[in-house]
Amino acid sequence: MNAFQVTLRNIKRPELSKVLEFEAPNREQAALLAAKPGFRVALVKPLSGKLKSEKSNKAISRKELIKLFRGLASMLKANISTADALLYYSQGLPDPELQSSLMNIRNRLEAGLPVHVAFAKEQKFDSTIITIIEAGADAGQLGEAFSALARRIKIEMMFASKLRTALLVPSLVILFQIGLFIYSQVYVVSQVEDTLKSVRQEPDPISVAIFSISHVVQKVWPFFVIGLIAFITALFRSAEFRQTLLILAMKRWKLLTMLVMGLRQSSYIGTLQMLYANGINLARASALSARVVLGTPMYDDFIRASQVYESSGVPFAEALKRNTNLDPQVVHMIGIGERSASLPQQLELLRDIYEEDTAAIMADFTQVINFITLAMAVVLIGFVFTGSMLPIFLMGPRMMQSGNM
């Protein structure tokens, strides 16, 4: 593959130009890659060595993958070849790096490489995507494979977005409320206490209790903030800490357990259905699907079940029942699919059921989190108001009585 520098000039304003760099087999292909509406190709210059703008093999974003696979699937269903589909899709893309990657894949296809090898050599797609593409190509169903990939990635993005919304915003609100509470106790309440001392008024019992809380907060807040920062840092940096914390929380909160198990089972079943429907044998499909729960206790269980099924000859449903903690409904329906030779249909039904159920559980979880956030806001704002205003209100009548005496 050769590197070219292409200079584009604006058709209406020739003084405006753009300089782009591409990898292409020849000048004509580089000019075709660089074509943009409103610009003409003024110069195509070969470059020696690698592209200056070449980046690391960064994975393509999920949103771009969804659009890419949907676009390729629609063109393949219209009987357009894979190489031409890649060419048509890459033309006009705003991202030159993605455009160059797709053209590299196309050029490998034109050179006679298998489609999954052409994608794998770009090093921007994970092993599950490459496996699905290989299986789809072998079965002559590459369009269906691309459609399945787009659907699976979209579902994963939807759940990730909902989970982020359910946790991120309430967490930020709670952190802000904690900061407001500390500020009120350290600065505002202490100023109120100083005001009472300046007018030589003894605080009443309620004010004494409020000031005592403020004194405690003033002593411990630096240690609390350090501990909170350490906790948040460990939460983001340590997968083992997150997993331990999640297990402890799941033991005490049934709704969280239902949500986590629903997400894990939905991801596993959805990936298993996608792989098996595209012609990958069940043992390999199960082992590959286990990667979606990598880092959780379920990963080893799924790998063990796949190995037992492949080596011992027991039914897949029985291997899952013995080695995993999947819901009985999942094992039962997989067993029905094996006995009635309708496993693809049963997996698709399970996938739809668990995606719907998990979405409903996530909605309930979001409502509970929002209620907890609201309750904490009421309590902390109540503390702020009580600490800053109540001693002043209680001091007023006493000052009036002392003035009348």
TrEMBL record:
Domain Type II secretion system protein GspF: 70-181, 271-391
Signal peptide location: none
Coiled coil stretches, renumbered: none
Transmembrane segments annotated in the record for this chain: 167-188, 208-235, 371-395
Upper lineage: Bacteria, Pseudomonadati, Verrucomicrobiota, Verrucomicrobiia, Verrucomicrobiales
Membrane topology: Multi-pass membrane protein
InterPro entries assigned to the protein according to its UniProt record, in alphabetical order: GspF/PilC, T2SS_GspF_dom, T2SS_GspF_sf
Protein name according to UniProt: Type II secretory pathway component PulF
Pfam families: T2SSF (PF00482)
Gene3D superfamilies the UniProt entry points to: Type II secretion system (T2SS), domain F
One GO cellular component term: plasma membrane
